[in-house]
Amino acid sequence: MSDRKVISFENIKIACKSCSLVTLCLPMGLDPEDMDRLDRIIKRSRPLHRGDHLFREGDAFQCLYIVKTGSVKTYAPSEDGGEQVLGFHLPGELIGLDAIENASHNCSAKVLETSAICEIPFSHLEELSISMPSLQHQMYRLLSREISQDESMLTLLGKNNAEERLAAFLLSLSGRFKRRGFSPYDFYLSMSRHEIGNYLGLAVETVSRLFTRFQEEGLLEVERKHIQLLDLQRLESVVKRSSSDTNQIQST
Amino acid sequence: MSDRKVISFENIKIACKSCSLVTLCLPMGLDPEDMDRLDRIIKRSRPLHRGDHLFREGDAFQCLYIVKTGSVKTYAPSEDGGEQVLGFHLPGELIGLDAIENASHNCSAKVLETSAICEIPFSHLEELSISMPSLQHQMYRLLSREISQDESMLTLLGKNNAEERLAAFLLSLSGRFKRRGFSPYDFYLSMSRHEIGNYLGLAVETVSRLFTRFQEEGLLEVERKHIQLLDLQRLESVVKRSSSDTNQIQST
DNA sequence: CGCAATATTGACCACTCTCAATGAGGGTGG
DNA sequence: CCACCCTCATTGAGAGTGGTCAATATTGCG
Questions:
Q1: From the alpha carbon of A246, which nucleotide's C1' atom is closest?
Q2: CB spacing of B151 vs A106 below 8 angstroms
């Protein structure tokens, strides 16, 4: 968040690519030449603005996307105009993995604020991964991680009450900002209360009330989109606390 | 699928393998030789019994598993003895994809009834996929499908009420049985009411009441574990109906 | 400046959970 | 083979969390 200033398209392009490389390669031991091959298939896109779509449900699947700056939400639209928010994607995060199976997107992706996004043509990536076992392995890992994340989200929605969900959500954002070198305590929510509620399976009003309550309890300070987490530890205890569920299944 | 009768271990082994091959290769155009290479890394396991674990949370990740006969549940245990059921796995379905990332399982898998399960050592599979692009592609697809499925589950938990969840659950089972050649109308639930409720984020009592109500409404007939779906169409309409949610987010 | 979208707050209500009691199977041991 | 026990399932009554509806800020944008 600090001193990064996007000056020209060329800068975006360079910054964008290196960011994507980090996401795709971090734990791999790629030699420089492979790195370069990978780099060459990553395309920058022009800066996108609030409301722009990366893709819509039903679009043919061409590319994976990596957020360089800004943020993106993915959501599943329903016939009647409603939607289920599936995720919020911050810098460094990959979008579109759920589209590989039927070669068409089954959710839509919309940018929440002015964002720089890299595109990676999947066919190229796949081809490249044939001759780069470490890239193939990394792809397996990225796909697998997505599954794990969805599973913990299932647990959140299945077992946790409203306050636990919101606390977990804030801690998730906090951790992801931290990992990317931003402040884990002080950040801006690029999504609306409505979208937060939708994502967490809660009504807007519930989200709003909880923000107020958390603030009263000294857990955080929130004003509009700006939020400061004052007590991460206590926030964590909110998540874990009432997981004292009676929903235990006896083994046989 | 029809006349397959498992008589001996040797038969199990053969049936088991071919089943796994179907799962792994169905949409691929594998030549016989590749098919054979793939076949050779698939291992049968001895028949497992109700309550046996395929793996537990924290176990080192070695194998993927494919259900040949029977059924398996995966679940995320929590410290306090509770758990979140993540899925029920029927014949032909793959288990363990979420473990690739950190090479250790982050959920447990327990068989619900006497079951035949195939093991596929992931390291072998991965190695094989290096020289078999179509296998690699199929792996990407399988992983991607898992993500899609989890996402639609997120929508179910986030937006749908109890009756919609149970109806969707039953229809999911129905469809999966049908695809495997079993009756989509008449089957046995190998999981308890408790486990169904846990999976759907509902209390046991709610599940029980809903079964009763669905029965009163003529949607189905249920006795203990045996269930007959009498009106798939009406069941579908139960799922779709009250998705007339007001939780719509205006585009900007 | 005014309208529209977003947030907040309150009152009320409903869906589902919790608690509790009863009933029905299924397995084990006498 | 039956009795007993334990788990699982069902049903009822009451309570609580969170949703719905509605009114009122507040903000942002044209």
A1: C18
A2: yes
The verdict on pTM exceeding 0.85 is yes
* Beta strands B83-89; B116-121: pairing state: unpaired
**Range B116-127 average pLDDT:** 94
Last residue of a domain, one of A126, A157, A188: A157
Domain ranges, residue A225: 160-251
State the count of interchain CB pairs (< 8 A) between A and B: 178
Nearest residue to A145 (alpha-carbon basis) of B186, B98, B137: B98
The enclosing domain of B24 has a CATH number of 2.60.120.10
* Per-residue pLDDT, B115: 93
Query: For residues B156 and A76, what is the distance between their CA atoms, to the nearest angstrom?
Result: 11
- Provide φ and ψ at B227, rounded to 5°: -135, 140
Average pLDDT over residues B94-101: 97
How far does the CA of A194 sit from the C1' of D22, in Å? 18
Query: B103: left (phi > 0), else alpha (psi -120 to 50), else beta?
Result: left
SS3 at position B76: strand
Residue A26, pLDDT score: 60
The span from the CA of B153 to the CA of A199, in Å, is 13
pLDDT in tens, A166-222: 999 999 999 999 999 999 999 999 999 999 999 999 999 999 999 999 999 999 999
